Amino acid sequence: QVQLVESGGGLVQAGGSLRLSCAASGHISDINVMGWYRQVPGKQRELVASITRGGTTNLKNSAKGRFTISRDNALNTVYLQMNSLKPEDTAVYYCNAVLAIFPYTIYWGQGTQVTVSS
Q1: CA-to-CA distance for 76 and 97, rounded, in angstroms?
Q2: What is the secondary structure of the chain as a DSSP string?
Q3: Among 32, 58, 64, 69, which is least packed, fewest CB within 10 Å?
Q4: How many CB atoms lie within 10 A of CB 87?
Q5: pLDDT in tens, 66-108
Q6: What is the spatial distance between Cα 93 and Cα 111, in angstroms, rounded to a whole number?
């Protein structure tokens, strides 16, 4: 089992910044990929950014140049630095972790609200 606890969401004006954190506990040695997803009401959850244990990153096109994902394996924490925020970034942001071993179980955090006002 893996537990994920997110923090750092909130209300910010357009153009502002927020940093989300996600701390993992439990069977953390089995985690390969960690990522951030977001969801707005009525829409599917979408990938924002992900990072492997080795540090390979993947970002949603609209996040490139504005968001940065990083990971501290020693602290078992993944971060999402979000700059130049736009109202369309408003969503509930979820942290996830994918295990490196079959059946590659996926764990989710409880979500943190990010609201960007115009």
Answers
A1: 11
A2: -EEEEEE--EEEETT--EEEEEEEEESGGGEEEEEEEEE-TTS--EEEEEE-TT--EEE-GGGTTTEEEEEETTTTEEEEEE-S--GGG-EEEEEEEEESSTT--EEE---EEEEEE-
A3: 64
A4: 11
A5: 999 999 988 899 999 999 999 999 999 999 999 998 999 999 9
A6: 5
